[in-house]
Sequence to fold (250 residues):
Amino acid sequence: MIDLSGKTALVTGGSRGIGRATALMLARAGADVAFTYHARRGEAEQVAEEIRGLGRKVFVDGADLAQPAAVDRIFHGFSRTFRQLDLFIANAGIWPPEETPLRDLDPGRWRTTLSANLDAIYLTTRAALRIMPAGGRVVMVGSTAGQRGEAFHSDYAATKGAMIALVRSLAIECAPDITVNCVAPGWVDTEMCAPAFAAGGRERIALTIPLKRVASADDVAGPIVFLCSDLARHVTGEVLNVNGGTVLCG
Fold:
């Protein structure tokens, strides 16, 4: 039922985790796919080869998305490769795994988290909206932390809460031409969450989830692809929870 043939997507942070799963699922649905990575060039090239193997056109570039010049370069390269940008998935971000109360949180970590999770979103989304035609879709990857907070990770929660506010602001700004939504995962079986899963942590976490399992990256990619499709053409400003029932709010 979901056919993205003729569409072009750009996924930030597409070399691994949720971004990788999303890039591949978009390609399987028929879209040509561009994606960015930060440091994992080898893994990015593997994803690019998989997309080509599906018969889709691909563009990949690595950069720090919090740097305006880098974002300009990526979008310039994108525009040389593709006719237009139909689907933008803002996925790239970080989660500092060290539990730190705010009173001990140093300015360096605070700025690093805000730069990676918020400055980069501002720069890339602004660039995407400048070239996106009517009918475009923007999907941001948030977190349950942006809805209920996350003790000892206040820097991360603050960025994801700001993302939700940005999504709702842009949904009105961009209507009626472009929809803007957010997918908010809980725990996901990715490298980013691996420190929390060590030494039996995964099993303990799974017991706290009503569905009694940790999500796979594909579990999150599916709702993202749905929001990119015509099935979601009347959905905008929404926060779609993908957390197994852990947080029941929108």
